[in-house]
Amino acid sequence: MSGERIYLYDSTLRDGAQTRGVDFTAADKAGIARELDKLGIDYIEGGWPGANQTDDAFFADLPRLTRARFSAFGMTRRFGRSAENDPGLAAVLGADVPAACLVGKSWDFQVTVALGVELDENLRMIGDSIGHAARVKSEAMFDAEHFFDGYKANPDYALAAIGAAYAAGARWVVLCDTNGGTLPHEIDEIVRHVTTLIPGDRLGIHCHNDTGNAVANSLAAVRAGVRQVQGTLNGLGERCGNADLVTLLPTLMLKMGYTTGLDEAGLTHLTTVSRAFDERMNRAPNIHAPYVGAAAFAHKGGLHASAVLKDPRAYEHVVPEQVGNRRHVLVSDQSGRANLLVRLAEIGIEVAADDRRLPGLLEQVKANEHVGYAYDGAEASLELLARRALGEVPEYFRLQSFRVIDERRYNARGELVTLSEATIKITVGGVPIMAVAEGNGPVNALDTALRRAIAQTYQGVRDVRLVDYKVRIMSAPDGTGTDAVTRVVIESADTAGHHWSTVGVSANVVNASYEALADGITYRLFQAGVSVPAAADTAAALDMGA
Ligand SMILES: CC(=O)SCCNC(=O)CCNC(=O)[C@H](O)C(C)(C)COP(=O)(O)OP(=O)(O)OC[C@H]1O[C@@H](n2cnc3c(N)ncnc32)[C@H](O)[C@@H]1OP(=O)(O)O
Ligand SMILES: CC(=O)C(=O)O
Question: In which pathway does it act (predicted)?
Answer without folding.
Answer: Amino-acid biosynthesis; L-isoleucine biosynthesis; 2-oxobutanoate from pyruvate: step 1/3
